[in-house]
């Protein structure tokens, strides 16, 4: 127990901890603003825990019990956090404890700083208040802000809490894409809107949940994107040395035969991030290397892939030699 506590103290003192803390805090501020300004006024129910909290808050208000949306978000997230610890992993759970528990208070904070009543207009289509004046515009603004926040959290193995926990569980055990997982879990929550909204608003919420899943996949793929580069050149040895010695990446060599010339050549294949790819192309141009190069985007990489930390360790080891 003492060793784990010591490791936790050391981790708190690292740059990685504080960088991720800032990322999580800013991400949750954006998420809370999206909920408060685009869902709460119009009672537009998207498949999120915040949407479920809006439904429950309205139901409680109808029977004379006043509970804010922020309070309900916090209560539900506490329950779901227990599932995160039990079914996902501790790192995801610890980070999500922070993000889930600050979402509710941040929603209430936006209410104190700048209430939505100051900018909301009466929605002519539904008779309900709306910041943008139309439920479809509210939907677009909410989905863009929430999806960007979710993708940012997933990139550091955290989440915005709530529905993301259910999505992560579905993703881990049923192997669905994160976006599909968000859509499936969210659709169930959308159906609870029948208690407070007309059929038309429920349909808008379901469409929004589906779009949210697509946008999450897009943002996640953008954050994780790699380049698969294939190079055919007589100078393949020089290129290989540059990749392994300078970029500290592995590569694979294939013997290929030209379909037109019939000549045997060596094709070099390597996975690179955006910066590495730019460096390689600039070096080949500088060295005037004659090569046939193709590159395509890869959004997911499994197995042996050197992270930034691993690459730094490898560089230190090679410098000591």
Brief summary:
The protein is α+β, with helices and mostly antiparallel strands. The chain folds into two domains: 2-223, no CATH class; 225-320, 2-Layer Sandwich (Alpha-Beta Plaits), CATH 3.30.70. It has helices at residues 2-12, 15-38, 49-62, 69-87, 90-113, 135-155, 163-174, 178-190, 199-224, 236-246, 274-286, 308-320; strands spanning 121-122, 129-130, 226-232, 252-257, 264-272, 292-298.
Keywords, please?
321 residues, alpha+beta, Alpha-Beta Plaits, 2 domains, 4-stranded antiparallel sheet, two-stranded antiparallel ribbon, 12 helices, elongated
Note down, in words, how this protein is organized.
With 321 residues, the chain is α+β, with helices and mostly antiparallel strands. It folds into two domains: 2-223, no CATH class; 225-320, Alpha-Beta Plaits. 63% of the residues lie in helices and 10% in strands. The chain is built from twelve helices and six strands. A hairpin with a 6-residue loop joins strand 1 (121-122) and strand 2 (129-130). Helix 2 runs antiparallel to helix 6 (135-155), helix 3 (49-62) crosses helix 4 (69-87) and helix 7 (163-174) packs across helix 8. It is elongated and about 80 Å long.
């Amino acid at each position: 127990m003492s060793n784990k506590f010591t490791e936790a103290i050391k981790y708190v003192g690292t740059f990685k901890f504080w960088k991720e803390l800032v990322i999580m805090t800013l991400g949750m501020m954006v998420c809370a603003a999206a909920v408060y300004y685009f869902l709460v006024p119009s009672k537009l129910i998207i498949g999120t825990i915040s949407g479920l909290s809006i439904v429950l808050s309205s139901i409680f208000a109808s029977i004379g019990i006043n509970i804010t949306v922020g309070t309900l978000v916090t209560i539900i997230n506490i329950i779901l956090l227990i599932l995160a610890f039990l079914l996902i992993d501790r790192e995801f759970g610890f980070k999500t404890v922070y993000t889930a528990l600050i979402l509710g208070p941040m929603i209430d904070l936006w209410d104190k700083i700048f209430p939505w009543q100051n900018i909301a207009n009466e929605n002519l289509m539904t008779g309900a208040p709306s910041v943008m004046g139309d439920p479809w515009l509210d939907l677009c603004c909410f989905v863009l802000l929430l999806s960007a926040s979710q993708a940012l959290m997933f990139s550091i193995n955290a989440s915005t809490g709530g529905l993301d926990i259910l999505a992560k569980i579905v993703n881990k055990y049923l192997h669905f894409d994160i976006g599909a997982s968000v859509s499936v879990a969210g659709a169930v929550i959308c159906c609870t809107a029948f208690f407070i909204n007309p059929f038309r608003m429920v349909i808008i919420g379901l469409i929004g949940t589906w779009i949210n899943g697509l946008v999450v996949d897009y943002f996640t793929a953008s954050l994780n994107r790699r380049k698969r580069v294939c190079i055919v050149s007589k100078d393949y040895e020089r290129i290989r040395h540059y990749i392994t010695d300078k970029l500290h990446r592995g590569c694979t060599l294939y013997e290929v035969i030209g379909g037109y010339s019939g000549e045997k050549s060596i094709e070099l294949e390597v996975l690179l991030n955006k910066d590495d790819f730019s460096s390689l192309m600039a070096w080949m141009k500088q060295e005037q290397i004659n090569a046939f190069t193709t590159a395509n985007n890869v959004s997911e990489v499994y197995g042996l892939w050197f992270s930034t930390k691993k690459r730094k360790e490898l560089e230190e080891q090679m410098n000591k030699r």
